[in-house]
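anyone seen this seq b4? input:
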Amino acid sequence: VVTLSRAKARVHEIEHEYISDEPVAVGYAAQEIKRIFTQDGVSEATIKLGDTIINIGTKRRIGVRNPFSNDEENFAFLDVNEKSVVTLSRNELKNTLFSRRSNLESVTLIGSDAVQLCKMCCTVIGYMLNEALALLKRSGFEAIIVTKDEQVFTTSGLSRERQLAA
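predicted toks r here
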C-alpha cells in the first residue's frame, strides 16, 4: 500500500510538471511507477496508464485495443514477460500535416522502455505503412500496425514468435 501511495504521488507530481496527457509524459509516469515498485521490491505487477502498459514479473496476456471500436474491445492479445506495450491511435493526436498524410490508424509497440516506445509511436504513426515498417525494423521494436482500411501488419519478430493471438 505504501508503494502504491508513493507511485500515485509521483504520478501527481508528473501531471503538474508536464500539465499534459501527451503520450511521452504518460510513458514517463509509467516508468516512474515501475522504478518505485522495483525499488520497493515489488516483483509482480501490471502498470496500466491508458494504452501504456508495463508488465513486471510473470508472463501475462495483454489486450490490444481495437482502434475502430468506441469501447474497450480488444482485437488481439500479446503474451509479454517483463515488457512494455504502448498503443497510440491516430485520433489521440493533433491533426497535423504529418499525421494527415499517414495511412496508419494505430501503432502498438512492444519493448522494454515505455518512454522510448511512446516516442517511437508518436513518430511512426505519421508515416505511410512501408516507411513505418522500415523505421521499425531499424529500431528493434516489435509492432502491430493497423491501417485506415483495417488491415493488420506485424513486425517479423511477432509473427515468428507467434505471440500475437487474434
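The radius of gyration is 16 Å. The first strand starts at residue 45 and ends at 49. kinda curious what u guys think
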